[in-house]
Amino acid sequence: MHGERLIYDDRWIRLGLVDVEIPDGERFEHHAVHLDRAAIAVVVDEQNRVLMMWRHRFLSDRWGWELPGGLVDAGEDAITTAAREVEEETGYRPKEIEHLITYQPMAGMVDSEHSLFLVRGAEFVGAPTGEIEADLIEWVPMSEITGMIARGDIWTSGTLIGLYAARERLNGASA
């Protein structure tokens, strides 16, 4: 990478044009999208249920079950964001929280680090605060997740990766 020229910049997105040289020596310009980091939580209770939110995504005009999460604020670490977002979006306060995995959902064109956390247990502390982000908030049995994915009721990358990583961790595999 020989440099980047900023094309657009606001609170939500930065778009750049990057001067790139690949290993064979070819050099060209490539668009790059920069988004803030995100933190997502898989909240599991003692009955092996996952706390999920039924949401509509306007860009794809599609409904689906998602995990709570959001953008990491300046000066905040991802684990703090995950805990804060769970409480704000669902009204549940996480008890134990641990890092699962960090990934890039669309490497090569988009820079948007996502950190996933496993929350074991949560205490209901009141109604969600701030923006209403979900039509339903429910505890879904982990045993129903595979069928929900197969039906297309769970389709976003953070939720899919989070659920698969949490299932592995809960079944004894380390990430």
UniProtKB/TrEMBL annotation:
Q: Name one GO molecular function term.
A: pyrophosphatase activity
Q: Which cofactor does it need?
A: Mg(2+)
Gene Ontology biological process terms in this record: nucleoside phosphate metabolic process; ribose phosphate metabolic process
One Pfam short name: NUDIX
SUPFAM superfamilies membership: Nudix
Q: Which Gene3D superfamilies match?
A: Nucleoside Triphosphate Pyrophosphohydrolase
Nudix hydrolase domain mapped to chain residues: 34-162
Q: Which InterPro entries match?
A: Nudix_hydrolase, NUDIX_hydrolase-like_dom_sf, NUDIX_hydrolase_CS, NUDIX_hydrolase_dom
Q: Keywords, A to Z? A: Hydrolase
Q: What is the superkingdom listed in this entry's lineage?
A: Bacteria
* PANTHER family the UniProt entry points to: NUDIX HYDROLASE DOMAIN-CONTAINING PROTEIN, UDP/ADP-SUGAR PYROPHOSPHATASE
The family note in this entry says: Belongs to the Nudix hydrolase family.
| Protein name, as recorded | ADP-ribose pyrophosphatase YjhB, NUDIX family
